[in-house]
Queue: 4 jobs
Job 1
Amino acid sequence: MKQTIESIDVANKRVFVRVDFNVPLKEGVITDDTRIRATLPTINYLMEKGAKIILASHLGRPKGERKPEFTLKPCAQRLSELLGKPVAFADDCVGEVARKAVETLEAGDVLLLENLRYHKEEEKNGEEFAKALASLAEVGVNDAFGVSHRAHASVEGITKFLPMVAGYLLEKEIKYVGGAVEHPEHPFAAIIGGAKVSDKIEVISNLLPKVEVLIIGGGMANTFIAAKGYPTGSSLVETDKIELAASLIKKASETNTNLLLPTDFVVADAFSNEANHKVVSADGIEDGWMALDIGPASQKAFAEALKPMKMIVWNGPMGVFEMDNFAAGTNAVAKAVAEANATTIVGGGDSVAAIEKSGLANRISHISTGGGASLEYLEGKALPGIVALADK
Ligand SMILES: Nc1ncnc2c1ncn2[C@@H]1O[C@H](COP(=O)(O)OP(=O)(O)OP(=O)(O)O)[C@@H](O)[C@H]1O
Ligand SMILES: O=C(O)[C@H](O)COP(=O)(O)O
Ligand SMILES: [Mg+2]
């Protein structure tokens, strides 16, 4: 058991809170603020107790560069609206800028630091960087379930220099997603899509023996289509994972898992909502065309397979749902998940945005802030960000 926020004294203390404000953005505007709202119980509690709250997050993958499109400023603004009070913003998460911003905090004040991933040491779990973050505060809270599968400096390394406990969101995620790990209901289906193919394809092997049905869509499906020897045109394909995909297709038959791949796609001649588009069969993607959504036959087959399920976990949209012409597959699967007589978990920054957009979120048992994190948890892995927290 891990210590939680209620077991520590925070009054008048500087509290470092790792949050996951990696929200979907379109031209600098937040399109889904679920991940920000999800941290409100922790922030409100800390405010009531008179803590000096220092929030830190990553946004996107700027890879150590100060790319302006990855600034956390819009999140400070949104959080301030949600809290109904000002949220200070520091242009850097370490160094003089951060220190000065922290010094001005009074009990109950909230500060958001700029993107942790503007420093490459964050993802490298650099010790000096972790120490620099730790030096800002007297105690730490992890409320960033979505990034707890990453052994990064603000998630894992920092705990060597600053004691960290679990926030309310982390506790809640452990309860629900952990519940699915410990007491899975059968038949159990996992649906995996999205764009983070190389990360997420690695979890499939361990998931196969745990589920009766595994549905693959979105960008993930293309690598499997390539593994079947079909052409993929200019679709997103992870070439160095084609062999792994082939072995997973084989493993599925050995574990008696019903592995469902799309049998048709909506293909486009450019990555744009205005592109020409048409439906083709899974073996019919021509040169110069890319798969941007699953087709109607796949939608139907996936929905049928989900009907008898008792538990469904979904991460990763079935297509580029941000563009209306390629949203039908994701919406169809959202509907099938919502209508199933099952315990359902939908997780991930974009997946949750998709389910919110479809208006079906209130029909899902648990909306999780974790995408990759939920999958790795489900796979049976210990998440480094959780392991590193102080024990009771
Ligand atoms: N066929 C496709 N080709 C390219 N991109 C795709 C395709 N299908 C889906 N996507 C993109 O995948 C992205 C979401 O993938 P991602 O793996 O980030 O899911 P997520 O739910 O946000 O999970 P996480 O929280 O782990 O990031 C969306 O932006 C969507 O447009
Ligand atoms: O969106 C997510 O899954 C988390 O914020 C982690 O982001 P990452 O995959 O870039 O580490
Ligand atoms: Mg995402």
Job 2
Amino acid sequence: MQITFYKYQGAGNDFVLIDNRNNELKSLDKQTVATLCDRRFGIGGDGLMLLENEAGYDFKMVYYNADGNEGSMCGNGGRCIVAFAKHLGVITDTTKFLATDGTHHAKISAEGNWVSLQMIDVDTINRDGEAYVLNTGSPHYVKLTSDLDVKDVYNDGYAIRNNATYKANGINVNFVEPVRDEEGFFVRTFERGVENETYACGTGVTAVALAMAKHNEQFGSISTPIKVLGGNLNIRFNYDGEKFNNIFLEGPAELVFQGDISVDV
Ligand SMILES: N[C@@H](CCC[C@H](N)C(=O)O)C(=O)O
């Protein structure tokens, strides 16, 4: 069967998007998703999303990681699917959609390339040694480090993601360093499901911003700029010393190209 796909990127985290409102794709098997996301044998992407109809919502986001498994929440994917929904005419400038972790509200700029996405509230941050472990829609490990620009993120991230604690369910591993002479942080992430470093991870930078507020005992209404390999993101939230709410992940979401490809379904 021939399908039309759209390739989006948000700060270099890239995705294949498909409009499945007519439910033409009844199911996508693991191998088909992995091949579509393959950078040599397919379109290429860190993940694949289906935009589907859902009663009571503007749309539903169905997210697969590049390895073909259905993933948990993807923050940059969420921002990209909002831009896609605007491109399709499903929404105008605000939206309420359903994802695997629940309801999300978002706003998109008039030009359609800047998305502010509300993330789930967070009330638990655990420790694993010096690292912080929390769930922002996907599970994240956050570790402060130095010399992040030359760090071996692939090997160090792989070792943590595959250690005895995390191997079975996996975890996304974020390394973070404060930016010198500027506000905010530089973050590099080894992503579960891609099983490699990506250029950005939205739920990851959200986890970093919350963990760093706890680490630095910063309370109230907070805005945290974060640099990643693929650009700049910003996280806004409230922290009362126990719970984090009104969490917004903000950044670019751009259509790169579109095309047709044949898939076995
Ligand atoms: N790139 C994503 C994270 C996607 C989910 C993740 N790989 C997982 O299933 O653990 C983001 O922007 O949040």
Job 3
Amino acid sequence: MDELDRTARALDAEHAATDLRARFELPPDVVYLDGNSLGPLARGVGDAVARVVEQEWGRGLVGSWNDAGWWEAPLRVGDRIGRLVGAAPGQVAVGDSTSVRLYQSLHAAAALRPGRRTVLADPSSFPTDLYVLASVARQVGWQIALLSPDDVPARLSGSDDVAAVVLSHVDYRTGRLWDLPGVTAAAHAAGAVTVWDLCHSAGAVPVDLDEHGVDLAVGCTYKYLNGGPGAPAFGYVAHRHQDAFANVLAGWTGHADPFAMSGTYVPAPGVARARVGTPPILSLAALDAALVVLDDVDVRAVRRRSSSLTAFLRACLEALVPGTRFASPADDDRRGSQVSVRHDEAWGIVRALAARGVVGDHRPGIARLGVGAPYLTHADMLTAARTFEAVLAGGEHRAAEHRVRPTVT
Ligand SMILES: Cc1ncc(COP(=O)(O)O)c(C=O)c1O
Ligand SMILES: Nc1c(O)cccc1C(=O)C[C@H](N)C(=O)O
């Protein structure tokens, strides 16, 4: 046992109270560092989904819309997510994809600030955010100004042309955690609204939406909320904007009285008006059960564990793989829950790591190691770094079998 082993042990002992690995069904021989793409299966999810399928659907049939609470599920599950992102009940609706929620939120932002023609966004945003923004901008007549989130407050200062600022809280590639409170305050001082994409922070980093006065937010649930592949996204609409929230996708489930079957759209009161079509009940059941395992968890405790894990992973890589070029900040307060390493052969490295049971993922030029704090340990971080070292030392990342690129990376 060397010094790094001893440190890993000591840190794991110090953080023992937040080790929730027993709540997840992870294979024993895998260090799973891709929970920022697809969170693992939480215990109880399979049984919960089976119960909904067999009992509620199989026996309850159509009556389950009333008897099993299916109709209310998008807002009930929304409140569960709300607790994790600092939103009081009644402000989060679940359903559809992040792309759809973003489309809705951007249109709603434009309607909240008519006459203003500029929207600020980060050119490094996840592609869907840029594509959706471009599409909405064409429809509402916005000019898009692309700039680093660091430069947003200065751009806003003294301006009166900005309708909205749309940013990711954590950068999907680098893991950079942006200043949500500061940018939100600067946007408000300039009369603009904020639309935050929480895909890489919800469940991993305290967001405190209400406390910071965020206007609108969206996020996916299949990463740190562990909702499962294709789990529905969520949209947050602050209480104060709900009456004016114009749903561009004015579907019938967001109607004030859907079963009146009126030919005229009347929006439901509250965040229910953000609903669109029929909720995906089986996916919601999986998400709901996955969130149960976080019900007694304080996201600040998750964050403390995550910061310790990612700091230790960085330290191990620095010690074992000298010259590692980190894309993720060294400063704990600026780093989300991942450690990204820049490397020209990142693709081969990620494939070779996976062949040895350390599962991360690749984004162009970057090996991305996502840290789902509840189910990972400092010992796992050390294993990952040692495996990284071994892959490079043996040139395994250059092996022919690691050059094949599957459809989904
Ligand atoms: C920041 C960010 N926004 C959006 C998405 C995707 O959105 P959707 O749920 O529409 O696939 C992702 C990941 O897939 C993401 O990382
Ligand atoms: N949503 C995904 C999917 O449907 C397939 C594969 C990966 C994803 C992802 O979540 C990608 C992820 N947002 C990212 O940060 O790269």
Job 4
Amino acid sequence: MTTTRGLEGVVAATTSISSIIDDTLTYVGYNIDDLAENASFEEVIYLLWHLKLPNKAELAELKQELADNMELPKEVIASFKTYPIQSVHPMAALRTAVSSLGLYDEEADVMEEAANYRKAIRLQAKMPALVAAFARVRKGLEPVAPRKDLGFAANFLYMLTGNEPEEIAVEAFNKALVLHADHELNASTFTARVCVATLSDVYSGVTAAIGALKGPLHGGANEQVMKMLTEIGSVENVDSYIHEKLANKEKIMGFGHRVYRQGDPRAKHLKAMSEKLTKLTGEPQYYEMSTKIEDIVTSEKHLPPNVDFYSASVYHSLGIDHDLFTPIFAVSRVSGWLAHILEQYSDNRLIRPRAEYTGPGMQTYVPIENR
Ligand SMILES: CC(=O)SCCNC(=O)CCNC(=O)[C@H](O)C(C)(C)COP(=O)(O)OP(=O)(O)OC[C@H]1O[C@@H](n2cnc3c(N)ncnc32)[C@H](O)[C@@H]1OP(=O)(O)O
Ligand SMILES: O=C([O-])CC(=O)C(=O)O
């Protein structure tokens, strides 16, 4: 047996959903650059779930299905008030809330293909409503009901603030959703696939995936990037802050990647958005600090920024609370998790690798009074 630390380079599944080859990311063969510039998030959801772009009627049907399923069970909203709401991280709240959604879905354990697709619609539709409702309830505000006339990106921003968002915010948020939707066999997607490969249900798979995304080495990095920018505070402080971290062998959040070597193709889109939005909001220092950090880390560590680096200043400019950055990642990535869950069910085999044992050799049981 050979052991590969962190499963680096191990090909553990086949998939038709997305690929990373020579640092190029594609969803079903469409380059991410093309999708980021042109596609709505709803089109991308359809693409990931049906492996083709929708025509007008198919897109209208999906949008209708999402709009019809956004409302949350009242029990789930009521349960927020039983959480330690002032201290709980919204990602932990989301993990718990998604799990509890399964309790109120009569089809939760129905394993037929059509029922699983219906659950995918429900989960995709309800995720933004959960994040927005939790964000409001913890501030003592009432949740805002979704509006059927708004698209996915606009609806999220509307449910979060209660105000119809500006076009520029909707465009930026839509692009961020498209960029985060899927990413081959990343840790959270792998987690979802491992979970449902036991023939467990969709809610369990997504709950497990949220748990994996939460960690700072994965989706949780975007919040940590903002924490770093806030700590640094000004462009003048970047140099000493980053050099001290590097000298202490600490990781700089938002840099490095297991698969990309030359760079993450999503980062340039977020970088451009960050430049534009931070100027518009009168906080260009967040973009300026970010580019200075990028200069140092790329030249000294040869590590390019990943998707989490510039998304931090983009979300900050959209007025989103910093601890909602990772839940927002989940609102997008659930589309990919669901695509992979459906793909896993369609040709399932239990995922069960081996471990190389490194503990003591054979031992003889010693009764407790003799130990
Ligand atoms: C959506 C996403 O999940 S994108 C990734 C988000 N995560 C982050 O941004 C967290 C910061 N980055 C990292 O921790 C890593 O680069 C990961 C987790 C993304 C990839 O990890 P791995 O492929 O396991 O690389 P690993 O952690 O082994 O790093 C290899 C070397 O590069 C260094 N390195 C990797 N990333 C960084 C970083 N961000 N800052 C400083 N050094 C780094 C490591 O210290 C290690 O150095 P060493 O060989 O001298 O010990
Ligand atoms: O693929 C990975 O390892 C992490 C990542 O960039 C993502 O999930 O978007």
